Amino acid sequence: MKWNKDSLKELEKAPEFVRDMAKKSVESHAKKQGRKSVSLKDVKEVFDEYMGVLETEGVGGKRPTHIAIVVCERTSEACPATACLLSFQGRKVKFKEYDSDARLVGFFSCGGCPGRRISRLLNNLKKSVKIDVVHLGSCMVREEYQPPCPNRESIIKMIQSKGIKVVEGTHH
User: Fold this and answer.
1) How far apart are alpha carbons 153 and 105 in whole angstroms?
2) pLDDT < 70: residue spans in the chain
């Protein structure tokens, strides 16, 4: 399928890790419209449909706070993270400072010691949305569940080096 310069330029705005999928979706959209080439309009229509959830504007034009939660890989094997998620949804405990526009834009485990996937996943998130705060799950900072994360300090420094605020805890 043919692409003009403008449509290719617009496609480049898609995060690299989803660009091939985006291209296929746009081409499928154009075919359904009975066209043999992709227009800028096709790209924008598909992006609006699939990437509209990433819009960064909240109520009154103010951008909402974007939050990610990182939990311990070992704990995630047994914990469904219900308390973390309900605390965020209800703006309780460690989430009480956020207004109702705050968005949970990422939730993932550390990937195992020493937090091997955190940097990669934060970099992927940053390609599509600005992350303001990372909450380390209570499982990473409290001793009631298991020994606290032995890599917590280095994980915090790594996250902060990306210009992201770190809050220790979710529901405790």
Assistant:
1) 23
2) 51-61, 145
